Structure formats: structure tokens, C-alpha cells
Amino acid sequence: MSSDSGSLDALLSEERRFPPPAAFRAHAVLHDPEVYERAAADREAYWADWASQLHWFEPWREVLRWNPPQAQWFLEGKLNVSYNCLDRHVLDGHGSRVALLWEGEPGDTRSYTYRQLLDEVCRFANALKGLGVAKGDRVTIYLPMIPEVAVAMLACTRIGAIHSVVFGGFSPESLSDRNNDAAAKVLIAADGGWRRGTVVPLKAHADDALAKSPTIEHVVVVARGGDLSKQVGASLKPGRDLWYHDLVAAASPDCPAEPMDAEDTLFVLYTSGTTGKPKGVVHTTGGYLTQVYATTRAVFDIHDDDVYWCTADVGWITGHSYVVYGPLSNRAHVLMYEGGPDWPDRGRLWQMCERYGVTIFYTAPTAIRSFMRWGEEWPGKADLSRLRLLGSVGEPINPEAWIWYHEVIGGTRCPIVDTWWQTETGAIMITPLPGITVTKPGTATLPFPGIDAAIKNEAGEETSAGYLAITSPWPSMLRGIWGDDARYRQTYWSKWKDTYFPGDGAKRDEDGYYWILGRVDDVLNVAGHRIGTMEVESALVDHPAVAEAAVVGKKHDIKGEVLAAFVTLKEKHPASDALLKELREHVGKKIGAIAKPDMIVFTADLPKTRSGKIMRRLLRDIAEGRAVGDTTTLADPAVVRRLQALYAEEE
Ligand code: WTA
Questions:
Q1: Among 177-181, 501-505, 529-533, 608-612, which is the least confidently predicted range?
Q2: In this structure, what CATH number is given to the domain that contains residue 553?
Q3: Of 49, 386, 574, 595, which one is least surrounded by beta carbons within 10 A?
């Protein structure tokens, strides 16, 4: 990280301070800093207090049992997630309140009250039962951002089925890998989905995946493709494929929620790691819901008159926790949008903020940097005066983007919550509390009350700059990796004793604030999406022309990071522009468009240590045009010079 130290110093010398505006603080859910002490004095009582705000069919008998690295929270408690997100609010007299307001890319809209959403979820839950889905079975959800994605997730939770949502941008091969790893029984897909004015043929992708997904018995298809629906309808496989609307219309709206054990698995979500194979992160019921409920309430300061919009796709953890479960368990009024942010023009999101009176807006730094590039005139055309709180997630936010967000979108009056967390943590871990914390641009500030973090060196000693560590179990922590306990232990718990290793570098300043510096492992963060370098390398090596490949991250103004691939071809395969294009497409086909390298360099050799390890640090230096650091361990230093020359040509 040596070459980054200049920019790091600049970050840490950030002098600007933003205390919570008095008007905000006066009405904030949390406004008294004593919450930090109260939580620290008795963490279990503190979390139990949040949990008791949910509905439990049966109370827990023990808050936490910790046999590292296995945590159990709220032992023997029984609850149901869909009951907490829906029935509870209807029974409390809020059935006519809007739960979900949705806008499709072409401009069509749909709205569901809590009662309507409950009705639809119950019908679909019954339909799933009718297809033979039982408690503990896995259901893959491969849908665009349409209301049915939330309905499908909630319907699974209602009957105790485990959902695995696969982002619609993943390729058929990624989809079948996930179907197979989880041995999913049912796939819920759409015929199509809108993206920048055209319909993406999602059912066709699903069909390609299904050819290699032997465990899938039924496919439920949501009609969203307009004209495509007829064509897809004609191609449905009798006995296997069914229309969602037919199933829901025929099903009973009466479906009691299954009392689930607090530690029953709620969902699996696949994410990239340091090997070629994505891992199925396992989350359970009671602890997960408690922490997403608590953080949504306290970090987003949810009040009854708020209109809440998190722009994440439900295919990622942010969509799970902060589009669906957190807001709905808080009885929030949630806005959801199907399409691209620049369709039909770059003012789309701001027009929607105005149209629906959005008060809380949560997005990613990569999006903010795009908005900056598009210019102030787009938000300038919309009335954003109802906004009162802004959030950021997914990667470090650079101070310029923070300030722009604060001034141009937030009109200098909205606190910004820069929230650090991961698929594995399930919920927000390090974040400002908007009515309490004095923020500084670029830092996620302090651990949420009840979360214990530290910065450690390799040996496990506390330092002010090193690796981020989570030192006590937390309610929404992952409980494992689907079918791979060894990998769970190895990835997260082998660096230090009984301490979780998130894979991020961090630094602490004089106020104790955490500055997250990015991944320290072979996971890249491209436009806020996690991509494993090994996954992309395996996809490249899978191509018949490729002998060897190394992929590294290269800094990018908008996306934060993009992929640079160094590829050695097999003899007989000459380098060409056509092959370069073909390799990018090949990666797109194997993983998905988000994993296509921004740049591919053909090279006769890769820089390796004497023991044969590819020196990724060197490749990163080359990719970013930096002077190359220490190469004394390199087997053949000339390789680096050749690569540098090649790379310069490419650019
Ligand atoms: C990064 C997304 C800095 C980090 C919720 C983490 C962040 C990875 C922040 C997890 C933030 C997320 N500041 N870095 N506020 N939020 N990250 O699993 O590197 O898709 O390890 O979860 O994103 O990505 P994931």
C-alpha cells in the first residue's frame, strides 16, 4: 500500500466537520450519545432490547451462545420474518399504509399497501407450497427490480424456505452454479426486465442455466417482458414452468406464518471471495432481523412520514437488508425502481425523488461519482427539498464525492451516513448515527452501538493502521458458508483467535474514527460490486487460447476500481484484437457483464516470485502506471519491463 500513502495522508488531514443539524437532532430516533455507553456496558441486554421490539411467537431463553466461530443468538426464540415485515403492521392498524411504491423503467407504477403486500405474499407462499416447497428447501430468485422480487423473498420466509437471490446481471453459468451449490428446488425468474429502453431476455438466460441445473423441479415465471411474454409463454416447458400470475390468482390468501427458530437459515447469498468459486453466505433468522431492524431504524432514522429509497439491486446484500427486510420490518414507505439511472435522461432519479417526495436516499459512491460527472444541472432541475438524510455504501467514499453529495443533493442540510458493512456482516457495522455523530468526509466514523471493532496487525496487536477486525460476535453475522465449514473458518477466523477478519484495511484517527481503505485480499470492488480476481482468472483460463492469467484492480475515477487482466496465450494462438474481444465476451458469459476486464494485456510471461507465485502487487503498479517497487524476489525482473512497455502501448 506504500504508493497510496500520499492520498491516505491527505484523507486523514481532512479538517471539515459536520455536526448533526439541530433540527435533525431534535427529532432523531437516537440523539443521546449515552447509547454507546449503554450498549458497551451490557451488549447482550442492548441487543435483546432491539430484539424485543420485534414480534416473537416464543421468547428466547438465552441471548447469545458463543463457541467461536459459531454464534447463536436468541436461542430457542421463535419468530417469522414475513410476519414481522407485514402481519405485525396490519394487526397494529397500519394495513392501509403504503409499503412499496414501485416505478418501472418505462414509467408504469404500482403500489402495495401493507395489507395488499401481505395478501400477495400469502398467495405466493401457498403457491410455493403447492409446488412442493417445504421448510428448509432452497429457492433461487432471479428477478429484476420488480415488486415480485420482494414478494418472492417474503413468501419464502413465510414458509421457512431458504432463498438465494441471484443478481439479474449474472450469466446463465453463474446462475446454474448457484442453483447447484444450493441444490435449489424452484427457480423464480422473469420473462424479461427493462434496462435502458430495451427488454433483457431473462427467461432465455434462465433456460440456458436450467439445462445445467438438475435439482430445479419448477420454474415460476413473472410476466414483465411486454411483447416478450407471448413468445416466452409459448416456450414454457409443460409441467415444469408456470406463470406467476396464474399461480397467485389460484392460491388462497390465507397462509399462517411458520414459526421459525431464531437460528433457522433465512437465506443464502453468494458473494465473491478469494478463490475461483463464489461462496454462499448463510444468514439466520432472529439475529439477522434484529440487526437490520435496529440499524434501519437508528441509522436511517425512520419515521412514519418518511419516503425511503435505497437504490441497490435486491441481488446484493444491500438490497436484501435495506430495500426489503430492514425498511419493511420498520413499517417504512419504500420506493423501488426497476431501471437505469440515466433513462430516459440523467435526471431520472432526481425527478423520482421530487415526484414521490423522497426523504431518505441511500446509494453507492460509484453512482455519486457518475452523478458528479453528469453535472449539477440534472439534480438542479428537480425539487429535492424533501430530502433530509443521505446514505452511502459499498466502497470508500472520497471526500470530493462526499462534499458534492452533501451540497448538490443534500442542499447542505442533510446528514450523510457512510455505512461500512459486508454481505457477511448482514447489516451495517460502522456508521455515523445521524442525530449524534459529527461526520467528516471520507470516514464511516464509529462502530454502531453494540458492535466491537478494532484495528490489528498481522500478529493480532491493536494498531492505528492495519486490518479492520470485529472482536465480538454480532447478531446478523454470517453463520457459515453453505456446505463448506472449513472455508468459513479459514476465510474469516484463521487470522486471529476468535476475531473476525473482514478483509479490509483501515486506519483510525485521533477521534477514534475508522477510515476504511479497501480490500487487502484478492477481492476487487468494481463500481461497488465485489468481484474475486480468481473468479475472473478462472474464467479467462477456461478459454482454449489462454495459458495463464492474472487479474488485478486498477483505480478508476468513477467505478473506484476496474479490472486489468494480464494474459499469457498458448502457443499457436497469436494475440489479436479479435481475441481480446472474444476473451472479454467469454468472461461475460462465464460470470456476467460486471466482470469483463476493462483492459487485457497479452504478455509472454507473468512476473512471478522464485516460488512461482504471481506478483499481483507488481501488476497493480504496472496497471496504474507507477514506478515498480521492490522486485528482488522476482524470478525474471525483465518480465516487468516488458510488461510495462506493453501496457504503455495499450493505453
Ligand atoms: C466495501 C456491501 C468503505 C468493503 C454492503 C467491504 C466499504 C465490501 C463500505 C463489502 C464503506 C462497503 N466504506 N468500504 N462505507 N461499504 N465497503 O459484501 O471493502 O458487497 O469489505 O457488501 O465493500 O462488499 P459487499
A1: 608-612
A2: 3.30.300.30
A3: 574
In the numeric block, the cell 416456450 is attached to 235
d(CA 596, CA 585): 7
Question: Within 6 Å (CB) of ligand 1, which residues are found?
Answer: 271, 316-318, 393-396, 418-423, 444, 502-504, 516, 518-519, 525, 530
Ligand 1 atom at shortest distance from the alpha carbon of 397: 13
Residue 605: inside a domain: yes
**Gap between the Cα atoms of 275 and 279, Å rounded:** 9
Taking only the tens place, the pLDDT of each residue in 228-254 is: 888 998 899 999 999 999 999 999 999
Question: How many structural domains comprise the chain?
Answer: 1
* Closest atom, ligand 1, to C-alpha of 530: 20
In this predicted model, what pLDDT tens digit does every residue of 586-645 receive, in sequence order? 999 999 999 999 999 999 888 888 877 888 888 888 888 876 666 666 667 777 777 787
Mean pLDDT, range 523-539, rounded to an integer = 92
The pTM of the full predicted model, rounded to 2 decimals, is 0.93
- Coil, helix or strand for 308? strand
Residue of minimum CA distance from atom 22 in ligand 1 = 422
Record the cell numbers describing residue 500, joined without a space: 473476525
Domain that holds residue 575: 543-650
On whether the CB atoms of residues 366 and 555 are closer than 8 A, the answer is: no
Q: Are 340 and 195 in contact (CB under 8 A)?
A: yes
Ligand 1 atom, smallest distance to 518 CA: 19
Give the Å distance between the CA of 480 and the centre of ligand 1.
19
Has residue 646 been placed in a domain? yes
In a domain, 536, yes or no: no
Helices (H) and strands (E) in the chain, counts: 24, 30
List % helix, strand, coil for the chain (3-state, nearest 5): 35, 25, 40
Distance CA 60, CA 48 (A): 9
- Which ranges constitute the DSSP H helices of 531-609? 533-541, 577-590
